Amino acid sequence: MEAQLISNGLRYSTLPLCYVRPEPDRPRPSESAEYENAPVIDLGCGDRQFIVQQIAAACKNYGFFQVINHGVAKETTEKMLEVAGEFFGLPVEEKMKLYSNDPSKTTRLSTSSNPQKEKIHNWRDYLRLHCYPLEKYANEWPSNPPSFKETVGKYCREVRGLGFRLQEAVSEGLGLDKDHINNSLGEQGQHMAINYYPQCPEPELTYGLPAHTDPNTLTILLQEMNVTGLQLLKDGKWLTVRPFPNAFVVNIGDQLQALSNSKYKSTWHRAVVNSHKPRISVASFLCPNNNAIIKAPKQLIEEENASFYREFTYAEYYDKFWSRNLDEGHCLELFKK
């Protein structure tokens, strides 16, 4: 069965078979606990060295962290979530004007993850946007809701600045110059996925997104406060990350794992769904320039030829990632020496 938008105004009484996972690969909500002591870092505390130390510890031990007092205005995040909800509430005919399963399109509405390749679909619709440079891509974005371009553009600019500041701190935490990571990645791209997970009639049988790591450098995730869905893998167990007020979740992506020579690990995460309330999240992806050569710096290679991964360009990695199913395993394994 070909995947179709599930934010179509219909209420499903049972889960369509094309979304049903086999018995061993189901969420098992009774076995998922809350992520206790998940790192929350106050970027406004005024102690730069302490912030760098906290970020380094979180990257090494968790692969993610949450940030507060991050410099992105509360009004900006609230309006972002509001306009996202307005978009997915549009009539399906209006939304379908943007529908495409071609991952090379720079603005597209789609469903699941990679519906043309996967055998089992995921209970998610999403709007994928390229966001940098804004003047190149914003004209492609939806004109409905009328406030969409202005609201999302402002959000993208503020989040991009946050991402650069975080990558400076990550670089320092690795013992590198503050600007090493940002400079090595070239003129960085920025993508966004506005995810919409509708109410699901049988959430124990499917995922919003199955377990995966992110192919980019750094992911900055905005969550709604009143509904959970993000789970991260820690010590072999799936743990639910409860949204923290006015916070972003920051995930280490595959490119930072390669750049750090595996000192930092990209975090395995997934999205689960529920039967009582739809959920929206906004994932912003900072990406190396397509021509950037991804390799660990000499300072992080302890012995000659001791780098874990061969050199590659981000374009090569991105193409390989999108040629596979999301749940086919860690794409970075294909780039090991």
In short:
The chain has 337 residues and is of the alpha+beta class. It contains eight helices and 15 strands.
What does the model show?
This protein has 337 residues and is α+β, with helices and mostly antiparallel strands. It is built from 8 helices and 15 strands. The chain has helices at 48-61, 74-88, 92-95, 134-137, 148-173, 180-184, 254-259, 314-322; strands spanning 33-34, 40-42, 64-68, 107-111, 125-130, 189-197, 209-212, 218-223, 230-234, 237-240, 248-252, 269-271, 279-287, 293-294, 312-313. The strands form 3 sheets. The protein has an 8-stranded mixed beta sheet with strand order 2-3-11-8-13-6-5-4. The chain has a 5-stranded mixed beta sheet with strand order 1-10-9-12-7, with no helix packed on it. Strand 2 (40-42), helix 1 and strand 3 form a beta-alpha-beta unit. The radius of gyration is 19 Å and the shape is globular. The mean pLDDT is 95.
